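Sanity check. The docking grid for magnesium ion depends on where the pocket ends up, so I'm generating a full predicted complex first rather than guessing from homology. Inputs follow.
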Amino acid sequence: MSRRTVLPGAGTLGVLGGGQLGRMFVHAAQELGYRTVVLDPDPDSPAGLVAHRHLRCDYLDPQGLDELAGLCDAVTTEFENVPAEALARLARTLPVAPAAEAVAICQDRAREKAHFTACGVPCAPHAVIADEAQLQAVDPGLLPGILKTARLGYDGKGQVGVRTPEELAAAWDELQRVPCVLEKRLDLAFEVSVIVARNAQGELVHFPLQQNLHRDGILAVTSVPAPQVTPELQAQAVRAAEAVAASMGYVGVLCVEFFVLADGTLAANEMAPRPHNSGHYTLDACDVSQFGLQVRAMAGLPLPAPRLHSPAIMLNLLGDLWFRHGEAETTPPWDAVLALPGTHLHLYGKVSARRGRKMGHLNVTGASAAQVREVALRCSELLG
Ligand code: ADP
Ligand code: MG
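Predicted complex below; grid placement will be based on this.
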């Protein structure tokens, strides 16, 4: 449906999905006086707990979707695995950002890589494996590689490292022979990501590049400004992410993750049609956050270029921190953490901790990158 501006304080914004990303979206929307509606089946969903309305139903429940459409002036999503049909149904009667088609591309590693290539953005050498013939035809030059399910992978799940054609065949069996992408294992120097936002008027802005450290396939630490990134590399990554967004006519916030290879070149890894864990530092280190831009983009508001006003380090807080003293859940020493200068604690209100579960994040800001590093290190010591 065609777009009109939904002015702050004069409308209702909806989100599909009630996780932490939905919760921080709701907070940003409420800051501008919007009413908010979350659709998520989980009665304890972090976003549902803070929204004006929580529709507890399945993402494909036609009645629930129609109720959401009736309540809202615009709708967004907080995760890419929302069925594209749900977005398409909503789009019949109200603006949906990002559009179903863009989400469908991001949902599928094969389509995602094809889109990068069409935009002239390099990515890892790869092959699609969706049937036996494609498995047999795989170029041995792609080994050693990583076999990844084309859909539904996250935080390193749905991936198997393979060194030989035999291991590849076994890995595909292990992944239930669902459509997969085999990627050549690249020699990574480090990893970065860039977040852009675009509105329906075509305004396109970006945050600075962030450098990301993963542990066990899960993002652990993000640093901004990216310590190892040259201005040329930064410009190249931003140009690539902007091309990827603009060529889809994208509306919303988009994150593109890149590998920086040992020879200094960039390869796009994957993208997310929503705010991203690596952009959580923007809540405290920028004059507008990635969630603020998500709200503005979907509401058809102007998108001024965001400004980083402080160096920052973000530490992801996984449920493991709640089990440092064995099996009994204990609250980490937040009082000691908050006694340090420039610490900003964000907890997602999840009812119980589990190992590997994202419970919150801690942003550290300060006058210099060295000071931020020092405080972040002290926080890790207190929490570790
Ligand atoms: P997820 O959807 O789980 O985030 P990714 O494709 O981003 O999956 O892979 C998770 C991590 O695994 C990456 O951040 C990177 O550290 C490593 N990785 C993935 N693909 C490759 C590759 N082709 N070469 C080297 N490392 C890789
Ligand atoms: Mg990733």
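Relevant for the grid: The chain is about 30% helix and 25% strand.
Also worth noting: Residues 125-184 form a domain with the Dna Ligase; domain 1 fold (CATH 3.30.1490.20).
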